[in-house]
Write a structure and sequence with these properties.
- The chain contains 9 helices and 9 strands.
- By secondary structure, the chain is of the alpha/beta class.
- α3 packs across α4 (72-84).
- The chain is globular, with a radius of gyration of 20 Å.
Length: 298
């Protein structure tokens, strides 16, 4: 591995095929990403969008612990819209598209919802099972405050959070899984214009360790009236994985995707990710067939 690094240098992580985002951040397995944002500003929607793109492009299977999206059918509807590019409603998505997407989600997205034990150890044990049996590469815990947290005797909150994050980092590295942890910030103050301040990882309740121990740190902030989404990449631990910075986007309210900031509603992406991928694969196969022939003109 060291020799390979010496010869080839640091390799970029996985992209989601959005230039502004890919310049700021690329994704690597075995890492911990912490995402914060004011409630209702779309941090969970953004995480869903990112992991959907990683799954479609790189075939990374995903496991969710997401009680706020319970019942699962509501979460399914969001994922289905992101994949098909259409509103989750009969008449917008054809029966064939629905059945195709249903089967795809069943094979690529898994939902952890322990009925009797919402503790961290129970969640992680189920995630380990899904790594071994289903080959998941991404785990989303959304949100942190829905986990049943058990402090050890005499342990304060800062010490507990440090230990919790250490366990999460160990899981990510041991099982080579990209972990997303969504965490709410403290109540943010408003500025002189009446807008909330943009939260940082240091604003997450409990400890500065949320910033100190993650590999990626992200804050999602949405300006509702203008439909502007500002995704601040606050931390990328390793420089080869991105430059960080502020990414401006538009929220596609019809399918839950995020669009280029300069785009308007008429140029938004409503393509079916599954069909688009099939076309790309067919084109690749046709080219491979061509270059194996003896009579190619070059």
């Amino acid at each position: 591995s060291i020799y390979n690094l010496f010869i080839n240098g640091m390799q970029k992580g996985a992209y989601i095929e959005m230039p502004d985002t890919d310049k700021a951040i690329s994704w690597e397995l075995g890492r911990l990403a912490i995402v914060t944002g004011i409630p209702s500003h779309g941090k969970s929607e953004w995480v869903d969008f990112i992991v959907t793109k990683l799954n479609i492009i790189h075939k990374w299977r995903v496991a969710y612990f997401s009680p706020e999206n319970f019942p699962t059918m509501y979460h399914f509807a969001k994922l289905c819209s992101k994949i098909t590019g259409k509103e989750f409603k009969a008449g917008y998505i054809s029966t064939n598209e629905f059945e195709e997407t249903f089967d795809y989600i069943k094979e690529n997205f898994f939902f952890i919802y322990p009925e009797d034990d919402m503790g961290f150890n129970s969640i992680i044990e189920k995630a380990k099972y899904l790594v071994k049996k289903r080959g998941i590469k991404v785990l989303v815990i959304d949100p942190y405050n829905k986990i049943e947290h058990l402090k050890e005797k005499g342990e304060n909150e800062t010490e507990y959070i440090s230990r919790f994050l250490d366990k999460l980092v160990t899981f990510a590295r041991t099982y080579n899984v990209l972990v997303f942890l969504v965490a709410h910030p403290r109540k943010m103050q408003k500025d002189t214009t009446g807008k909330h301040e943009v939260p940082s990882l240091y604003d997450i309740n409990g400890s500065a360790n949320f910033y100190n121990k993650c590999d990626y740190g992200i804050s999602v902030y949405r300006m509702m009236s203008e439909n502007e989404v500002h995704v601040q990449i606050l931390k990328v631990k390793f420089k080869h994985l991105g430059d960080g910075g502020d990414i401006q986007m538009k929220y596609n309210y019809r399918n839950g995707r995020y669009e280029h900031f300069e785009s308007d509603v008429n140029s938004w992406d409503y393509s079916n990710y599954l069909h688009r991928k099939e076309i790309e694969q067919k084109n690749t196969k046709a080219f491979e067939d061509l270059i194996t022939k003896d009579d190619i003109p070059f």
